[in-house]
## 1
Amino acid sequence: EAQVTQNPRYLITVTGKKLTVTCSQNMNHEYMSWYRQDPGLGLRQIYYSMNVEVTDKGDVPEGYKVSRKEKRNFPLILESPSPNQTSLYFCASSSADTQYFGPGTRLTVL
Amino acid sequence: DAKTTQPPSMDCAEGRAANLPCNHSTISGNEYVYWYRQIHSQGPQYIIHGLKNNETNEMASLIITEDRKSSTLILPHATLRDTAVYYCIALLYNRKLIWGLGTSLAVNP
């Protein structure tokens, strides 16, 4: 089954404690991206990757890092999380004309 | 990318057609109209997209006006499981989606 998986699905952490949210897709897509969703603001793109070793900033990249060492994986890294990064995060993987989204990771930073 | 405008909420009776409007008056000739939906806080789900011709798939139909300044997503026989937030997005064929706040559709029994 074609899918995008994210882990963990839920995470509560404290300010400053580094964390990584993993994202994996099994569709051999080159394009992947990360979004955050906040009430009243909709989905906003954090980072995207056009292919292995090619990443670029989206609209709200501050406080985040990504890497793309292999095609299927696109982890999101928060080196020093802060409370304003409390949000619902989605990873997406794209074919030529459709984006497929993961189930989401709900992150709370205390 | 063109900005889209949607009503914040709509209601529909179960079994009836749900017609969700979207205005995209600044859309350019090479920008597609995409529709996604999000059920509760799940990952958004692709529904349909089109450029200038009307499109239909197993989920819905997309009607785009001749001047391409607006479109309508039609769910022909809405069910309770179609209750969701529906997003209309206009974008270049470059896979970046710029999301608005969408239309919250409530399908009532």
## 2
Amino acid sequence: AQSVTQPDIHITVSEGASLELRCNYSYGATPYLFWYVQSPGQGLQLLLKYFSGDTLVQGIKGFEAEFKRSQSSFNLRKPSVHWSDAAEYFCAVGGRGNTPLVFGKGTRLSVIA
Amino acid sequence: NAGVTQTPKFRVLKTGQSMTLLCAQDMNHEYMYWYRQDPGMGLRLIHYSVGEGTTAKGEVPDGYNVSRLKKQNFLLGLESAAPSQTSVYFCASSYSSQTESQYFGPGTRLTVT
């Protein structure tokens, strides 16, 4: 079975600074990987996903993530954070057998002026 | 398109009471899911359905039942509510597999006293 770890519970960045949110997964084969974002009081929205091919994937809102098999990681990045990016971010991993996704515990992002 | 809707948005129950949460989607998705979100725990899958008339257990199914009598609806029932079921419940749907993008509803905040 797959599992996912988001090591950072809470991160604070200044507006305009770069951002990297960490995600590590455990799975025996190449997984399906996702990043979702949850704004306060709302449901989750898909930012981006990796299935195969190019290991650098682009998503919505200027986010990107890189799959690194050697490090079992799928870190989310953004070059310049906006105040509206303050939210909770969830990494999720899916297995190749059409098994349910497993979500990480989330990283809360605060953005300061 | 309304996407995924959930009814009700908020509910307070007394221990031992029962209730049903309704999830509806208008995207003709085959797969539907019920998650619960608790602080520091991320999203945990309660039950899911891979098509009309089917249901399956997720990670935390105890104390809940579900039904998928119509493709567009997925009901989550609590027969005898317990304080441990105080949570925010999210419904989601995806087109044809676990690893396709999931679309989430806005959530139902349930408090059991």
